[in-house]
Amino acid sequence: TDLPRGTVHRLIRALLEVGYIEPSDGRKVYVLGARLLRMIHLGTPAQVIVSLVRPLLERLSGRFDETAFLAKLFDREVRSMAMVVPSSSGSTSYVQPGRVMPLNAAASAKAIFAFQEPAVFEQAMARPLEKFTAKAIVEKGDVEREMELVRRNGFAVCDEELDPGVFSYACPVHLDDAGVLYSVGLVGLSERLNRFSSDAVIVELRAAAAEFAALLSNR
Fold first, then answer.
1. Residue 141: φ, ψ to 5°
2. Residue 130 burial (CB count, 10 A)
3. The whole model's pTM is what?
4. Which residue among 8, 68, 133, 147 is least packed, with the fewest CB closer than 10 Å?
């Protein structure tokens, strides 16, 4: 760069402070930092994400004959991003691309917000929470306990909290370099989706989440 050593030192220190770079193995070698990588992931074009996740959603939808979906964190809210509806006759989708998923009721949002830094969670909680159904929670303490439960279990559920008679599962997508920005889920009528054991659903969702994380990392 032909920059003076002192100038380079100041630039590196500034980049370290904001998390854009980080030291590698404690040596004077630096790599892209988690904050910058997170920004890159957040800026990945929607069409790229949809093309990568669609085969996984099709597999989930075919396995359970229900709607499979992907949700993503956008700034301080979670929105549904992609979905696959089963081809069986009479199937109905309960997810619309672009729909904002509330952190107090939607499994997809719970699975993402449970793994965010406290500041992100607090900013999201600053907005009024809507009681969509009688089962939905709106008190901060209740929401915090729900987030802890999601972290402990590694998945989230929505038991008729957002739409009456509708049940959903969601698992976080853990990215080694960016944390949790996505969740993969399955949604359907409670009476129909509950014919499967929760263990069977979660095993498949976790496998899809891990595969999607690997695809994003390779990309």
1. -60, -40
2. 11
3. 0.81
4. 8
Instruction: Provide the residue-wise pLDDT of the chain in tens; the chain has 219 residues.
Output: 899 999 999 999 999 898 888 888 777 888 888 777 777 777 777 788 888 899 999 999 999 999 999 999 987 899 999 999 987 645 555 667 778 899 999 999 999 999 998 988 999 998 889 999 999 999 999 999 999 999 999 999 999 999 999 999 999 999 987 889 999 999 999 998 989 999 999 999 999 999 999 988 766
Question: 195, 143, 187: which is closest to 165 by C-alpha?
Answer: 187
Q: How far apart are CA 32 and CA 23, in angstroms?
A: 9
Rg (CA), the chain: 19
Q: How far apart are CA 215 and CA 104, in angstroms?
A: 29
Asked if 167 and 194 count as a contact pair (C-beta separation under 8 A), the reply is yes
Cα distance between residue 44 and residue 57, in whole Å: 19
Dist. CA 109–CA 152, nearest whole Å: 16
Q: Would you give the DSSP letter of residue 70?
A: E
* Residues 159, 191 contacting (CB under 8 angstroms): no
Residues 98 and 79 sit within 8 Å (Cβ to Cβ): yes
